[in-house]
Amino acid sequence: MYSKNSVKLSVIFIFCFALFAFAPSSKSYTYVDGNNNVYTLTPDSLVYDPITPNESSSGEYSGGEPKTVKITSEKFSKIEGIMLAILKDKKSHEKNRQMGFGTLEVGKKLIYINSSSVLKSDLENELKLCLQ
C-alpha cells in the first residue's frame, strides 16, 4: 500500500506540474533590424523601440515613434515560427554584424542575419504589419 507521505508527495508533484504546464508563456524574443530599430516580441505584445537621429550613423535617420501593440496568439505563433526558421537557416547566419544585417536574440544567443535572407525580409514584413 501507499503511505500518506507518498500520496501527499504525488499530489504536490501533480499540482506543481499542472501549475507550470498551464502557466502563461514567458517567451520573449528581440530583433534588431538593419537600421538598429528594436522589436521585442512577447506572447501578447510587440514593442517597437526605434532609433533616433542622434543614435543613427547618418545623424538623420529616424525609425519613427515608439509603439507597443497587443497581438493575438496566432500572430505571435506566426512571427515566432519565422524566428525559429531563421535559427535553423544556418546559411543566412553571419559571424559578425555588418551594416544592414538583422540581429535575432533568443535567450542569450545572438544570431546575425545577412541582408539577403528571405526569412529576414519575411520577419520584418510581419513585424511592420503588426505595428500598422
Note down, in words, how this protein is organized.
This protein starts with a helix and ends with a helix. Strand 2 and strand 3 (45-49) form a beta hairpin. It has one domain (24-131). It is globular and about 35 Å long. It has helices at residues 4-21, 73-88, 118-131, and strands at 29-32, 38-42, 45-49, 67-70, 93-94, 102-106, 109-113. Helix 2 runs antiparallel to helix 3. It has a 7-stranded antiparallel sheet with strand order 4-3-2-1-6-7-5, with helices on one face. Helices cover 36% and strands 23% of the residues. It has 132 residues and is α+β, with helices and mostly antiparallel strands.
N-to-C span: 63 Å
Structural class: alpha+beta
Radius of gyration: 20 Å
Query: Oligomeric state of the chains?
Result: single chain
Shape: globular
Number of strands: 7
Number of helices in the DSSP assignment: 3
What count of structural domains? 1
Query: In this structure, how is the largest beta sheet organized?
Result: 7 strands, antiparallel
- Pattern of helices and strands: HEEEEHEEEH
**Average pLDDT for all residues:** 85
Measured as a percent range, the helix fraction is 25-40%
Strand order of the largest sheet: 4-3-2-1-6-7-5
Which regions are unreliable across 5 or more consecutive residues at pLDDT < 50?
6-25
Q: Name the beta content range.
A: 15-25%
